[in-house]
Write a structure and sequence with these properties.
By secondary structure, this protein is mainly β. It has no helices and 8 strands.
Length: 113
């Protein structure tokens, strides 16, 4: 599985790991954290732990070396599961085919199992 570590400005370590649903498990210290909601507490639109990283809906996860854009947040005991929107060109897959116009590298991607 793809796993990336991120160190924020307070030296807290956050990890991003692609899970079996092809979403991303975001783990770290969320003790001090800003959370934004749409209309009710079930509609998360952003999460900003103290020191970062700030993540909101539509954020391109290539900033962290991962594929896809954030389509939602699922609170978990360990932090958050970032729901990744599928590529509409690639038949709903969360990775891009070689010929996909949305593929930033235009190279084959390794499918995470």
């Amino acid at each position: 599985m793809n796993k990336v570590e991120y160190k924020n400005r307070y030296d807290d370590i956050f990890t991003f790991e692609v899970n079996e649903r092809k979403n991303i498990d975001w783990k770290g210290n969320f003790e001090w954290c800003r959370i934004g909601y749409e209309d009710n507490r079930d509609d998360l639109i952003m999460v900003d732990p103290s020191g970062g990283p700030y993540i909101d809906l539509g954020m391109d996860m290539s900033l962290f070396g991962l594929e896809g854009k954030v389509a939602g947040f699922i609170p978990q005991e360990y932090g958050y599961e970032l729901v990744i929107e599928p590529c509409d060109v690639c038949e709903g897959k969360t990775y891009h085919k070689l010929t996909c116009q949305n593929n930033p590298n235009k190279q084959p991607k390794v499918q995470v199992k």
